[in-house]
Specification:
With 417 residues, the chain is of the alpha+beta class. The protein is 32% helix and 27% strand. α1 packs parallel to α11, α6 packs across α7 and α7 packs across α10. It starts with a strand and ends in a 14-residue tail after the last strand. The mean pLDDT is 95.
């Protein structure tokens, strides 16, 4: 199969590695990809991947059988629309359905219409509005920018002034939501959705804060693990019934069918499971651990999703072996990341049993050296027979990687090891 994977990050590298692991001999192009993807032996192509017309022309020229859209930016920009209109099999929702991630206010409305369990929320447009709602909901305060913010538009704080400052920062760029604080363990659960039917993948838990103990500012994700031994046996079935199916059917009823990956960001509270947010694509870094455990053919399931054939398939199967990912980030991340620094030790890291490394922000320097180019640089993914073994392998491998000033959390999956 000729497959185009759109996106530049570790999530796309993980998707590419899963496709390469299949018995089928795919012809894969990743655009724009990254140096790690190129090192995997896959063609990378320079492409304005958030421009619908540019992507459509590239796909028409190359004749791909399947296009997999990785990040949220091209989805919200409408990259899927002209491709699907031209009859191309696309894994990723149209622009209208991608508003489920692109607008938190839209997502809340869909949840309300579909009777999906979630917390209270109110849209505000000014600091004065926000002050009233903050006082009504009480501390801790949850403030979210309505649009895409690369994981940095959400603030959870007990400091009322900090909450108001967050509103003041984001309100000029669009609406802001003030939400009820929900206390509990967070869960990421992915669903394949073909516009009408859904199939679940395996749950994961990610770590959004920069420092151990969930301290410090939010990031794009500092690590994750899968599966979740502490959720109820019927957890996936419950979320399928109460969240995924009603949401997808509501979007279908409104004439905006959702075809792609429905990411349900959940929290398990004393009063039951609630939806914190939806995303319209594979989450990063949870994708890296979920796909590391996938035993079914990824391409088969993504193509069936794109072609509206999920009803023909059983739910995909996963290895019982746990997987853990530890993200290695640059000095200063998430505020101001130091870049342009040499990375060593990758070969030693990947020599650790059960480990592979995904690249998020690297390039090749002179003489083939590895250079950091962003905030989250690498993801060290490990599998093991137990959580303890997977975790030990991940941290053993991470210790081999040398990047001046780099940082990583030391408590990923500690609660289950």
């Amino acid at each position: 199969m000729k497959i185009l994977v759109l996106g530049p990050g570790a999530r796309e590298h993980a998707i590419v590695l899963a496709l390469l692991a299949e018995t089928a001999d795919h012809q894969i192009v990743c655009a724009p990809g990254n140096a790690g993807v190129a090192a995997s032996g896959v063609e990378v192509a320079e492409l304005a991947y958030t421009d619908p017309a540019v992507v459509a022309a590239f796909v028409a020229e190359r004749g791909f059988d399947l296009v997999i859209i990785g990040p949220e930016a091209p989805l919200v920009a409408g990259v899927a629309d002209p491709l699907r209109a031209a009859g191309v099999a696309v894994f990723g929702p149209d622009q209208a359905a991608a508003a489920l991630e692109g607008s938190k206010a839209f997502a809340k409305r869909i949840m309300d219409e579909a009777n999906v369990p979630t917390g209270r929320a109110e849209r505000v447009t000014s600091v004065e509005d926000a002050a009233r709602v903050l006082d009504e909901f009480g501390a801790p305060y949850v403030v979210k920018a309505d649009g895409l913010a690369a994981g940095k538009g959400v603030l959870v704080t007990s400091d009322r002034d900090a909450a108001l400052n967050h509103v003041a920062t984001w309100a000029p760029q669009g609406d802001v939501l003030v939400e009820e604080f929900l206390d509990g363990q967070e869960v990421s659960l992915f669903f394949l959705a073909d516009g009408h039917n859904v199939l679940p993948l395996s749950p994961a838990q990610d770590y959004k804060r920069i420092f151990d103990g969930d301290k410090g500012p939010n990031t794009g994700g500092m690590g994750a693990y899968s599966p979740l031994p502490w959720v109820a046996d019927d957890f996936v079935e419950e979320i399928t019934r109460t969240v995924a199916v009603p949401t997808v059917r509501q979007l279908e009823a409104e004439g905006t069918p959702f075809v792609g990956l429905l990411y349900c960001g959940l929290i398990v509270t004393e009063k039951g499971v609630r939806v914190i947010e939806f995303n319209a694509r594979f989450g990063d870094p949870e994708t890296q651990v979920v796909l590391a455990r996938l035993e079914s053919s990824l391409s088969e399931y993504l193509l069936a999703t794109a072609e509206g054939r999920l009803a023909e398939l059983e739910a995909p199967t996963f290895s019982p072996d746990p997987a853990v990912i530890v993200v290695v980030a640059s000095e200063g991340y998430p505020e101001t990341a130091a870049t342009g620094r040499e990375i060593t030790g990758l070969e030693a890291a990947e020599a650790v049993e059960g480990v592979h490394v995904v690249h998020a922000a690297t390039e090749r320097g002179e003489g083939g050296s590895w250079i950091s180019t962003g905030g989250r640089v690498l993801g060290v993914v490990a599998r093991g027979a137990t959580f303890g073994e997977a975790r030990e392998r991940a941290y053993e491998a991470a210790a081999h990687i040398k990047l001046e000033g780099s940082q990583h959390r030391t408590d990923i999956a500690a609660r289950v090891a």
